[in-house]
Structure formats: structure tokens, C-alpha cells
Amino acid sequence: xxxxxxxxxxxxxxxxxxxxxxxxxxxxxxxxxxxxxxxxxxxxxxxxxxxxxxxxxxxxxxxxxxxxxxxxxxxxxxxxxxxxxxxxxxxxxxxxx
Length: 97
Ligand code: HEM
Known about the structure:
- By secondary structure, this protein is of the alpha+beta class.
- Helix content is 22%, strand content 20%.
- The protein has helices at 19-22, 53-57, 65-72, 77-80, and strands spanning 16-17, 26-27, 30-35, 38-41, 85-89.
């Protein structure tokens, strides 16, 4: 019996995630956010977000870098979300704004 590693067991530093895949994870029980090229699972963090659930919810399933920086570019999300990284965003023209 062998178990093949599913996507969730892949190394987050190399796992590539497209915008298409990202946008399917936009619900209360399955929330991903892309920030500065990295994709994070924020399902748990969203309930603890100091700015409230509804604010962070705006970033579910999208590249929220711009939104994030508009509100609190000084926040160290890499530190806060350490261990929540799932993968890296596949670059497309739509992610480079
Ligand atoms: C996913 C990563 C995010 C992390 C780690 C994060 C973290 C934080 C932290 C630490 C604060 C408190 C800041 C302070 O007290 O100065 C905060 C506040 C806030 N955040 Fe986020 N945030 C995230 C995403 C977002 C997104 C996508 C939005 C969308 C608009 C947002 C909107 C806000 C707002 C409105 C506040 C309140 C700002 C205020 O107190 O004036 N956050 N967030």
C-alpha cells in the first residue's frame, strides 16, 4: 500500500497555485489569501483578525496585496501567518499590479 502525496502535503515553498485555484477557496471554512506572491490559509486567522472578519473576508480567494497594503502595509503578515503558507502564486499578468 502506498500513499501518494496530495496537494496539501507538497512543500509550500515550491507548490504553485494559480489564480483559478486560489479563487475556489473563498469560504468561511476554506479561506486562502495571496499576499506578495505567497498563498496562505487564513481560515483560522480570519476569526482572530484584529480588523474584524468582514474586513479580511474581502481578501478571500484573491491576490489581496493591494488591499492589504492600503490598510496596513506595516503589518508583518509573514510572521503572523508563519506556518500557514500553502504555496506560491503562479505569476500571470493579472497578479502583477
Ligand atoms: C491576511 C492577512 C492579514 C493579516 C495578517 C492582518 C493583520 C492585521 C493586524 C495585525 C491588524 C491590527 C493592526 C493594528 O492594530 O495596527 C489588522 C487590522 C485591520 N485589518 Fe488586517 N490583516 C490581514 C488582511 C486584511 C485584509 C485583506 C483586509 C482588507 C481590507 C484587512 C483590513 C484590516 C482593517 C480594516 C483593520 C483595522 C485597521 C485599524 O485598526 O485601523 N486586513 N489586520
